[in-house]
Design brief:
Strand order of the largest sheet: 7-6-5-4-3-2-1-8
Shape: globular
Structural class: alpha/beta
Bound molecules: pyridoxal-5'-phosphate
Number of helices: 9
Helix content: 40-55%
Order of helices and strands: HEHEHEHEHEHEHEHEH
Length: 222
């Protein structure tokens, strides 16, 4: 199957999941995760009408997206991988959405860069719903305090939440937890669900799903 055909399949599956969940058709946004894929592999997906893309590395995104966005208007680029502080300026300059605000230091640096560049990407806070020691993200019990600090002390608008459930677990409880943290903090945008579990995520309230391999095919590496 071509990436274009895969994209159609995923769009149709999203529509079914929306309808089964009693959610409005077309309300779930699809972020096509293009990490490790070349500009030539991405172009057919853009040609098929997809405009929202996710990348997990700042440097890799810098090497391919300025060219692609010059070719096609209206591309929206999301950072979905961990942000290192020495890449904050580049990330604020390149991305429309940073989904991985995951610590006070990075939130401060983003705030400073936004001020300096006069550019304000939308920000989502990443929540470590499985409290995995090796995984980025704010601990669920600290989410309220962190969001409050971002809003009040740093003047940042927090537009959404994102999570990556533990690979070995049923993702459902993690999606439900993210939805609860959203309700508790008046945050409507929930970025959750990937190729293997986006339908479950939609059933549990995802407003944004991040799908890579089901569109572009398997990756050699991540
Ligand atoms: C790679 C990645 C995805 C996409 O994963 P697939 O299983 O290929 O759909 C989604 N979210 C994040 C944060 C990723 O790093």
């Amino acid at each position: 199957m071509s990436a274009r055909e895969n994209l159609e399949t995923i769009r149709a599956a999203i529509a079914v999941a929306e309808s089964e969940a009693g959610r409005q058709t077309g309300m779930v946004r699809l972020v096509a995760v293009s990490k490790t894929k070349t500009a030539d592999e991405i172009r057919p997906v853009i040609a098929a009408g997809q405009r929202v893309f996710g990348e997990n590395r700042v440097q890799e995104a810098q090497s391919k997206w300025p060219g692609l966005t010059a070719e096609t208007a209206g591309i929206e680029l999301h950072l979905i991988g961990p942000l290192q502080s020495n890449k904050t300026a580049d990330a604020v300059a390149l991305f429309d959405v940073i989904q991985t605000v995951d610590r006070v230091k990075i939130a401060r640096e983003i705030a400073r860069e936004m001020e300096k560049q006069g550019k304000r990407p939308a920000l989502y806070v990443q929540i470590n719903t499985g409290s995995e020691p090796q995984k980025a993200g704010i601990e669920p019990k600290e989410a309220g305090g962190f969001i409050e600090l971002c809003r009040t002390d740093l003047g940042l608008e927090i537009a959404g939440l994102m999570c990556i459930p533990p690979a070995e677990e049923n993702p459902g409880p993690h999606f439900a937890l993210l939805a609860k943290i959203g309700r508790d903090n008046n945050i409507d945008v929930l970025s959750m669900g990937m190729s293997g579990d986006f339908e479950t995520a939609i059933a549990l309230g995802a407003t944004t799903v991040r799908v890579g391999s089901a569109i572009f095919g398997a990756r050699q590496s991540i």
